[in-house]
Amino acid sequence: MIKHLSNGVMMPMFGLGTFRVAPGESAYETVKYALSVGYRHIDTAQMYQNEASVGEAIIDSKIPRNEIFITTKQLIHSSVENMQKAFDESLRKLKTDYIDLILIHWPNHNKAINQATWAFFESLYERKLVRAIGVSNFQRHHIIDLLETAKIKPMVNQVELHPGLNQIPLQTYLESEQIAIESYGPFMKGGIFEEPYCEKLQEIADHHQATITQVVIAWGLHRGIIMIPKSVTPSRILENYQGQFLELSSHEVSEINALNRGKRVYTDPDNNSWSTYQK
Ligand SMILES: NC(=O)c1ccc[n+]([C@@H]2O[C@H](COP(=O)([O-])OP(=O)(O)OC[C@H]3O[C@@H](n4cnc5c(N)ncnc54)[C@H](OP(=O)(O)O)[C@@H]3O)[C@@H](O)[C@H]2O)c1
What we know:
The chain has about 280 residues and is of the alpha/beta class. The chain has a domain of about 190 residues: TIM Barrel, CATH 3.20.20. About 40% of the residues lie in helices and about 15% in strands. The strands form 3 sheets. An 8-stranded parallel beta sheet has the order 3-4-5-7-8-9-10-11. Strand 9, helix 6 and strand 10 form a beta-alpha-beta unit. The chain is globular. The structure holds NADP nicotinamide-adenine-dinucleotide phosphate. NADP nicotinamide-adenine-dinucleotide phosphate binds next to helix 9. The site of NADP nicotinamide-adenine-dinucleotide phosphate (NAP) has 23 residues, from helix 9.
């Protein structure tokens, strides 16, 4: 499945997450295996410190660069010079001369800082060093502030999203601004295998002779959400890949939506001390 971003760029709606995939052999083998079974979208970040291994696996896969969609995330809010340096480092490590999608990893609490980082992203886009630009962990209010000065709207917002935190209000807002929504943490750090989520998910999985993780992936895709589950285990990488082909009924999707508890398993973007401005 493909998501047409607001600028026409086609983004595979299913991909591989690589948070906490150790740099070196683990990241290299994981990405290489995922590409060999059909993944064409890899999500990494400067913070994950595995861009070099991801880049190496992509080169060694021999798959043409333009058939693979690479997302990375800029960690720092800083001077243009420092941000350009960090971006150039991502290009070098990923062994490519362009990035498909770059995201601001975390919002700063000062809107002027987010706006300045965004202006830098716009310059990357205008110089054709990136095919699309977006944000991550932005709440509605962060986006509203960003749009005050943005010349180009973000094309994607990647946020924590899973059965315990369905993010329907945020999705509705983002869609009104033509911003695609992308899920991270789809398996809730294992929470989907526990109550109050697992009974309903297992019932739907049994009905389709599928697994709980496949049901969660299919639920997100049915709602138009970009899904990037992470695994370093070959059998799970394959299982998750096959999950994208599972079709749920609208009723089943509503039943999963109803599991929402407003439950975060990751940090609340409004309540963290990260993403400070670095001189
Ligand atoms: N923008 C952000 O701030 C942010 C934050 C967090 C994550 N992300 C992105 O989103 C991606 C996905 O989120 P995530 O890594 O936090 O978590 P996730 O995809 O929800 O879950 C990964 C965990 O689930 C296990 N798992 C994977 N497939 C499974 C299966 N079929 N059956 C049972 N267990 C399975 C994995 O174990 P094994 O690996 O041991 O198989 C791993 O422990 C990240 O990798 C990253 O790319 C972004």
